[in-house]
Known about the structure:
The complex is a heterodimer of chains A (107) and B (388). The radius of gyration of chain A is 16 Å and the shape is globular. In chain A, strands 1-2-5-8 form a four-stranded antiparallel beta sheet, with no helix packed on it. In chain A, strands 6-7-9 form a three-stranded antiparallel beta sheet, with no helix packed on it. Chain A is mainly beta and 107 residues long. In chain A, 37% of the residues are buried. Chain A has a single domain, classed as Archaeosine Trna-guanine Transglycosylase, Chain: A, domain 4. Chain B folds into two domains: 117 residues, Rossmann fold, CATH 3.40.50; 233 residues. A seven-stranded parallel beta sheet of chain B has the order 10-11-9-8-12-13-14, sandwiched between helices. By secondary structure, chain B is α/β, with parallel strands linked by helices. The longest helix of chain B has 21 residues. In chain B, helix 3 links the parallel strand 5 and strand 6. In chain B, 59% of the residues are buried. Classes of the chains: A mainly beta (107), B alpha/beta (388). At the A-B interface, strand 7, strand 9 and helix 1 of A face helix 7 and helix 9 of B. Chain A: InterPro entries: SAF, SAF_UxaA/GarD, UxaA_altronate/galactarate_dh. Chain A: This is UxaA family hydrolase. Chain A: Keywords: Hydrolase, Lyase. Chain A: It comes from Halohasta litorea.
Amino acid sequence: MADRYLEVVEPVDNVATALRDVTAGETVTVAVGDEERTIEISEDVGFGHKIAIEDITDGETITKYGKSIGNATEAIPAGSFVHVHNVESNYGRGDLAEESDVEAISE
Amino acid sequence: MSEFLGYERDDGSIGIRNHTVIISTAPYANDTVERTADIVDDAIPITHPLGRCQTKPDVFQTYRTLLGYATHPNTYGAVVVAHAGEIVDGDELAEDIAATGRPSASINIHEEKGVMNALDSAVDAAQEMVQDASAQRRVPADMSKLTFGINCATSDTTSGLCQHKATAGAVWRLIDNHGGRGCFAETPEFFGGENELSERAVDDEVRQEILDRVEHWDNRLQATGYDVRGAQPTPDNMDGGLTTIEEKSLGALVKSGDGPIQDIIDYGEKIPDKSGMYIMDTPGHGAESVTGIGAGGAHFMVISTGQGHTLSNAVMPTIKITGNPHSAERVPEQTDVDVSEALVGDESIDWATDELWEELTDVINGKLTLSETMGESQFAIHRIGPST
Lengths: 107, 388
């Protein structure tokens, strides 16, 4: 039976939100839509944080609520902790903006 | 329940509180305002660092925000304190307040020949207003008169899964069942969800305006030359599991439900009378967005928090709800409604919505929120451009 404390919002999502502390070495079952998926947890993940529920490749879109919440900055195997160390945003990225746009303010 | 007990105003609005506010027009009147409010019990000081040496867009925004508080449905009367001649003009503000039928007074420190005389005059005026306000009685009023403000505070991953759903349920109950209004804000917290949000607009013009305003914020943030992460999401958001602004936004938008959006209005602009849901274009900075929605005339606000928060407003009562079982322990003295049983226990979102609705209808009729019992409040007008 699926673990009710591992919430996948939409079936297309590739991450689950932990509503309990999850420990490396656990085998968990998550509900993904009408289906269930079994995952080996490879890292400790605290309350409120996210777990990859499938293998995610470097650069791939991280999907939650059925929408992009950013892109992976490295390969993230299923069962790994997903957070700021391996995901980047696509908004408010002044660091990636054309230099001519930022010259006046960034100097 | 379709009626509540409120305070009638000459301009047709109905308040759920009966406040006297003491308003500063510039930083150099702030101390006099604070001292007046120290002396006169129940008077609310409104101070800020603006109102002088500002460019016109900021002058209009500062004036609009201060007038919004002075003529708020929950405001009985207002004492305006100016330092000298200012671009945010104290006499003009007092006249605009009086035009709504509210008692108002204009006090100028230079004209009074000093702070001691100004303080004496401000205390005199505030005393009379506070006493007269205390003699006014609540009368039955229709709930269609009410405007429901909503805001996030220290969001985490529980926000979009639980407490925001209860908040959405309550605000749409006021709109759909009672003919009231709702207002949410925080435009940079639409990033990643703007397309779906814009599709909820009542017409193409509003739909495009939502998209344009989101793009405008993204451009402004990019123009800084830095990655916005750290400012959005904030360190406490990230502690709570939120990884990017997109993830924060998609959760944040849950609190607005999925019904139609009537319009997107400017910071501090009066929320229209027509029943329905409105967006106010504000930053995600909670003190600034809450101050803006208060200026727009929301009677009360539900602050739907993830990690717990002190965010409050003195004129518009703030009801704080959380679904994170750890947060009610973090800021216990200000958590009005704990619905974590709907996230990790056996209760439903409908139960959480009913819990919130019951509390907010009590607050509408006069029950103090926890932040009101502590006198907790912040006031921060959003600034657009440079000081000059």
